């Protein structure tokens, strides 16, 4: 907020490293760094309505997140069969399996995320597919 203030305020919106350098009246200099790490955030909707409706806003299933270095999500049908794998946060599922539309129902998912400190966490949930 201020480079000459004694108590500056920092509000970065992502992981950030600050380097602080100080020079005293005698010309002696010292420096140090401060690392600010944010926990990963993951949002996964619980319902989507795939189809080719140009006015629909939720034709595709996908996750959103922040502070995530790596992301993988596996989607399973009610029999535990893997029907799709999202390989990144920019990947989407259109509600098909082997080229055919999946039936309405509840599908479970398992997401594995790695943050920028290389810590891995697993999240599970479900999504409702409605046509």
What does this structure look like?
- There is one protein chain.
- The protein is an all-beta fold and 131 residues long.
- 0% of the residues lie in helices and 46% in strands.
- The protein has no helices and eleven strands.
- It has strands spanning 16-23, 29-36, 41-43, 47-48, 64-66, 70-76, 82-86, 96-97, 100-101, 105-114, 120-129.
- It has a five-stranded mixed β-sheet with strand order 4-11-10-6-7, with no helix packed on it. A two-stranded antiparallel ribbon has the order 1-2.
- Strand 6 and strand 7 (82-86) form a beta hairpin.
- The termini are far apart.
- The model has no long low-confidence stretch (mean pLDDT 90).
Task: Please tally the β strands and state the result.
Answer: 11
Mean pLDDT: 90
Terminus-to-terminus distance: 50 Å
Instruction: Figure out the total of helices.
Output: 0
The description of the largest β-sheet is: 5 strands, mixed
Can you list the strand order of the major beta sheet?
4-11-10-6-7
Please tell me what the overall shape is. Answer: elongated
Which blocks of ≥5 consecutive residues have pLDDT under 50? none
Report the β-strand fraction as a percent range: over 45%
> Which class best fits the helix and strand makeup?
mainly beta
Percentage of residues in helical conformation: under 10%
Whole-angstrom Rg: 22 Å
Pattern of helices and strands? EEEEEEEEEEE
